[in-house]
Amino acid sequence: MLTSPPTRFFAFGLLLLLAPPMCAPTAASPPTIERDVTYGFKGGTPLILDVLKPSRPNGAGILAIQSAGWYSARRDPAIFVPNSLSLLNRGFTVFLIWHANPPQSKVPDAIADVRRAARYIHANASRWNIDPNRLGAVGGSAGGHLSLMLATTADKGNPNASDPIERHSNRIAAVVSINAPTDLRGWTTKPPEAITKIAILKAPLSFDAALESDCSPIVHVDPSDAQILLLHGQKDDLISVNHALHMIATMRERRAPGDIVVLKNSTHSVAAQDANAVATATVNWFVKHLGKSK
C-alpha cells in the first residue's frame, strides 16, 4: 500500500492552484475538464495527466507538476478549478501532471515522467490549441524541483526514436518554482537532517548516488534555460532558502534568465501573508513570458 506524503508536502504539490483567489479578469465561461489522458506507461501502468481547458484559450499551456516528496497522490481534477481561475481566465490551458509513485519510482524516474509529459504535450499541442513554444511549468517542493529539471535540461527529442512521442522536444519557456530543492548532491547517502526525519522520503531518494548531479537543477544551469522564477520561504525549515539563493547566484553567474522572490513570512508552507503575493507573481510571470505569440 502506498503511504501518502504528509499534508505539508501534498499542500505544496497543489500550491499554485489552491492559492487564495486573486484579482482576475472578468470571469469567462466555466472551463472544461479533460480527464485521464494517458501520456505513457510505466510497468504496464498508465501515466496520467488531466487538462483544465479555458473557454477562450490564449494559446499557452502550464504544466502544473503534482508532486510532494516525489509522491504524486492523484486527486479529482475538479478540485483544482476554482483557484486556478486566475490562469484560466487569462486563457492558459492547465495540465495537471501526475507521475509514478515510490517505492518503485525514484527521483530519476519522476524526472523521466515529467519529461515524457512535456513531450506528449508538444506532440499533441494542436489537440488543445496551444503553441508548443509557449509552455510553462509550476510546482512546489518536489514539484518545483521537477519543474526546474524541465527548465534546465530540455532537449529537442530523438529523431530516430521508435516511439514517436520521444521524437518531440520537452522544452518549456517559463517556470515558477516554489520552495524547491535545487541541489540533491549528497542526498542519497547523507541527506539534510530535516529530510532524514521524514521516513517516506527514503524511498524516492534510494537511487544511485552517481545520478545525484544529473538530478540537481543547479548543475545544469546555462543561458539556454527557460525563464525561471524562484519563490522561497525565508523561514523554510525543510528545504533551506539557501537552495534558491545558490540557484539564483549560479543563474546570474552563468547568465541564465530568471529572478527570485524571498517570502519573508513563509516556512515550507506559504504563510497566509504571502499567499496572494505568490499567486500574483506566478500569474504575472507566465503572462510576461508566455502571454503573447512570438
Q: Could you characterize what this model shows?
A:
- With 294 residues, this protein is an alpha/beta fold.
- The protein has a single domain (7-290), classed as 3-Layer(aba) Sandwich (Rossmann fold).
- Helices cover 25% and strands 18% of the residues.
- It has helices at 7-13, 85-88, 107-123, 142-152, 193-196, 242-253, 272-290, and strands at 32-42, 45-53, 61-65, 93-97, 135-140, 174-178, 227-233, 258-263.
- Helix 4 (142-152) links the parallel strand 5 and strand 6.
- Residues 1-26 have low confidence and may be disordered.
Count of DSSP E strands? 8
Topology order in helix (H) and strand (E) letters: HEEEHEHEHEHEHEH
Name the overall outline.
Answer: globular
> How are the strands of the biggest sheet laid out side by side?
1-2-4-3-5-6-7-8
Runs with pLDDT <50, length 5+?
1-26
CATH topology: Rossmann fold
Secondary structure elements and their pairing?
Layout: H1 7-13, E1 32-42, E2 45-53, E3 61-65, H2 85-88, E4 93-97, H3 107-123, E5 135-140, H4 142-152, E6 174-178, H5 193-196, E7 227-233, H6 242-253, E8 258-263, H7 272-290
Parallel strand pairs: 3-4, 3-5, 5-6, 6-7, 7-8
Antiparallel strand pairs: 1-2, 2-4
Helix pairs in contact: 3-4
Brief rundown of the structure:
With 294 residues, the chain is of the alpha/beta class.
Quickly list its features.
294 residues, alpha/beta, Rossmann fold, 8-stranded mixed beta sheet, 7 helices, globular, disordered N terminus
